[in-house]
């Protein structure tokens, strides 16, 4: 069973770092205000305001900054500033041996799916949740509160309206997942995670519909769907299509493969690249219930 990092307490230090795309200090002003309102002390890593093309510093700088926060015993959580691309470029340069002896929360989503999966592969929970770069986005209040609750060890429960493609049933298992494109990228690497007996959640943005299908074919053929306890399908934002339409929506594509199996499926869950991006704890044992009234996901406090 994955280990749970200690819950945050008022006065704890949290670091903001860039593992992928660059951000400026000005970009993080709202996030700093929010975190200080939670009575946390904010430490900005050296990669904040660093720049190497589109990245928040070179690969070496980003790996060094993240490693320093991993190894600093005073830092009790690491918040990845934003996604984009770049975390897979540095993941193999990181040493988690010290982290294993003194785990702390790591939080982010999108490109940070790399860290969520890598940490779960190593036996640790982490948070898939909204990142500092977009703390101030309109409509994101609930997502922020869900992140706070996850960091401070409070229980979580989400209720989702019914969807026509839902498959009813009840599942219990550890949560795993994140961005579909990153899950595809991690397949066969040291960050790849088994899905058997777990509840998988998926989201993505800007993907061509044929590519969603291709990635689902890969998940299916590689056995990632076969032994799932349950499936949660989140936001598939701003889908793209070719001049000749693919002929299915993202949800219909996913249903094509999910319906081959018997596990319960929830569509329309508020997770992904939209303001209602509710925090999920990767590795936490959860209960998913899907029936005619809708879907419910819950798990205990840390």
Structural description of this entry:
Pfam families: Peptidase_S66, Peptidase_S66C. Keywords: Carboxypeptidase, Hydrolase, Protease, Serine protease. Strand 12 (285-291) and strand 13 form a beta hairpin. The protein has two domains: 13-139, Rossmann fold, CATH 3.40.50; 157-299, Glucose Oxidase, domain 1. The chain is globular. The chain has helices at residues 29-37, 59-71, 87-90, 97-101, 113-121, 141-151, 180-186, 209-221, 250-258, and strands at 13-17, 41-44, 75-80, 105-108, 126-128, 156-161, 169-179, 199-205, 230-237, 265-267, 280-282, 285-291, 294-299. The protein is built from nine helices and 13 strands. A seven-stranded mixed β-sheet has the order 6-13-12-7-8-9-10. It has a six-stranded mixed β-sheet with strand order 2-1-3-4-5-11, with helices on both faces. The longest helix is centred in the first third of the chain and has 13 residues, at 59-71. The mean pLDDT is 98. The protein is α/β, with parallel strands linked by helices. Helix 8 packs parallel to helix 9 (250-258).
Distance between the termini: 13 Å
The CATH superfamily of the largest domain is identified as: LD-carboxypeptidase A C-terminal domain-like
The order of strands across the largest sheet is 6-13-12-7-8-9-10
Number of helices: 9
Query: Average pLDDT across residues?
Result: 98
- Radius of gyration equals 18 Å
As a percent range, the share of strand residues is 15-25%
